[in-house]
Automatic annotation (TrEMBL):
Keywords: ATP-binding, Kinase, Magnesium, Metal-binding, Multifunctional enzyme, Nucleotide-binding, Thiamine biosynthesis, Transferase. One of its GO terms (biological process) is thiamine biosynthetic process. GO terms for molecular function: ATP binding; hydroxymethylpyrimidine kinase activity; metal ion binding; phosphomethylpyrimidine kinase activity; thiamine-phosphate diphosphorylase activity. It comes from Thalassotalea agarivorans. Pathway: Cofactor biosynthesis; thiamine diphosphate biosynthesis; thiamine phosphate from 4-amino-2-methyl-5-diphosphomethylpyrimidine and 4-methyl-5-(2-phosphoethyl)-thiazole: step 1/1. SUPFAM superfamilies: Ribokinase-like, Thiamin phosphate synthase. This is Thiamine-phosphate diphosphorylase. GO terms for cellular component: cytosol.
């Protein structure tokens, strides 16, 4: 059995090896998943012309599926070319059975026409849309979305897909007429609202190349591979778009020939990642960068205690930490204000310790705190301009590459990445990053310090510090230690900061 996540691709074979199964295989391998194939057709095509599609018999499709079900069960199924009505009906029955008995995800790239022209699928739309209730994510380009839904507005297209049974719609913007390529993901479209809470928008400049054959297949396969690896939808589409940008850029300027999209490696180059277009980003796009933490060259923040009371602040201030966060919960507003005021006063006697106040940005401004830490989910309700004008430093929580890129565009004083491990203090189900993802996010960072947070014990701290992160935030590693002073010394010894 494979120790890699398994995805299936149910799609056609391209004899020129640019699109379909060939693209799916190469993309899946770039993302570290095992790809199993169910071939729906052999297509005869090249860079100049589409000649024919030779559909696979239903009995052979069923043989392939049953063979894979014995020992290659998928986490995710990616669907491409469905050649005719019989195949659409077969797929309906397969997905209906699998989804009833197993927790799997299905990604559909609605291929109907070859890039060089020519109809590949004769499936009637009524048959094709019949299996839509068993699709989790659909990835049409602008023209495909319009052809299927009859709508030109992307929000209306997403709602139309929802009526057909699909909850997550990614509309790719590569066929737009402008100089940018903007992909829009409507996630859980029951909840599309004016605040854009479930709409993820990613934009990149168009890349000047004609080596794009198979790019749509590769995008959907990249999304499927990321989902199989456990990424959230917003992070899967971000990584997929970076992968597409990277492959197009590999053949930058090649316009004389329509060639195959180049599947490269897992994306780590920050220049290949898209811009996040978001209500928060648009609202505060004109803000100057927030004040830096004034670290000397080669200086790190080290250990970052997050504590919940004035008593703990009084205990830790003398221990030579470069940064401490006061996170007050379950107290009256009057008590919270009094404790924030007192905390700011106490910190004045320790000028080398940067005191951040969690959440209560208005009170932090009023009482002249050094900085404020805001969770990603609270950014829309926070007046970042007021924090910036007041001269406070800003830290922002992030969970995955989408939020990391969004927060980085706001130019805060530091970025927090978490949860690295499961934590006692907060339910982070589905958002555990791990050391590997932390390492990847560090490759994307600009000149902004990064803090790792979440479930980091004394035993786990060395592996986190070895990633090159600027700071490790801890909660219970100090507050639940039998000897908090000794625990602090051990943690500071791991980072070599504050000893």
């Amino acid at each position: 059995m494979s120790d890699k996540p398994i995805i299936w691709t149910i799609s056609g074979s391209d004899c020129s090896a640019g699109a379909g199964i060939a693209a799916d295989l190469r993309t899946g391998h770039s993302f570290g998943v095992e790809v199993c194939t169910i071939s729906t057709a052999n297509t005869t095509q090249n860079s100049k012309q589409f000649y024919a599609v030779n559909a696979t018999d239903i009995a052979i499709l069923e043989e392939q599926a049953q063979a894979l079900l014995e020992d290659k069960f998928p986490r995710v199924i990616k669907i491409g070319l469905i050649a005719n009505d019989k195949q659409a009906k077969w797929l309906y029955n397969l997905l209906k059975d699998l989804k009833a008995r197993h927790d799997i995800l299905v990604v559909y790239d609605p291929v109907g026409q070859a890039s060089v022209g020519g109809v590949m699928s004769t499936a009637n739309q009524a048959f094709s849309t019949g299996f839509y209730p068993y699709i989790d994510i659909i990835t049409p380009n602008l023209s495909e979305a319009q052809n299927i839904t009859g709508e030109t507005d992307t929000t209306k297209q997403a709602k139309a897909f929802k009526q057909l049974g699909i909850s997550t719609v990614i509309i790719k913007g590569g066929h737009s007429d402008d100089d940018s390529c903007t992909d829009i993901c409507y996630h859980a479209t029951d909840n599309i609202g004016d605040n854009g809470e479930h709409v993820y928008c990613l934009s990149s400049d168009k890349i000047n190349t004609r080596y794009s054959h198979g790019g749509g297949c590769s995008f959907a396969s990249a999304v499927a591979a990321c989902l199989a690896q456990g990424y959230l939808v917003r992070d899967a589409i971000t990584l997929a778009k970076a992968f597409i940008n990277q492959g197009l850029h590999a053949n930058l300027g090649k316009m004389e020939h329509y060639g195959a999209f180049e599947q490269t490696q897992f994306p780590t180059n920050p220049a290949m990642f898209p811009r996040v277009v978001d209500n928060i980003q648009q609202r505060f796009s004109q803000l100057p960068a927030f004040k830096p933490l004034n670290l000397s060259p080669n200086q790190s923040l080290g250990i970052y205690p997050v504590i919940g009371s004035i008593e703990w602040l009084e205990k830790l201030l003398p221990l030579n930490f470069n940064i401490i966060q006061l996170r007050l919960k379950d107290k009256s507003q009057a008590t919270i204000e009094a404790e924030i005021k007192r905390a700011v006063e106490l910190a004045k006697d320790y000028p080398n310790t940067r005191l951040f106040i969690n959440d209560y940005w208005q009170l932090a401004i009023t009482h002249g705190a050094y900085g404020v830490h805001i969770g990603q989910e609270d950014l829309l309700d926070t007046d970042l301009a007021a924090i910036n004008r007041a001269g406070l430093r800003l830290g922002i929580s992030t969970h995955g590459c989408y939020e990391f890129l969004l927060a980085q565009q706001l130019q805060p004083s530091y970025l927090a990445v978490g949860a690295i491990f499961p934590t006692k203090t907060k339910d982070m189900t589905g958002q555990i990053q791990g050391v590997q993802t932390l390492t990847h996010l560090l490759s994307l960072k600009a000149d902004i310090p990064v803090v790792a947070i979440g479930g980091i014990s004394i035993e786990r701290a060395p592996s986190v510090w070895q990633t090159g992160v600027d700071s490790i935030a801890v909660v219970t590693a100090i507050t639940e230690a039998s000897d908090y002073v000794e625990a602090s010394k051990v943690l500071q010894g791991i980072t070599g900061v504050g000893e």
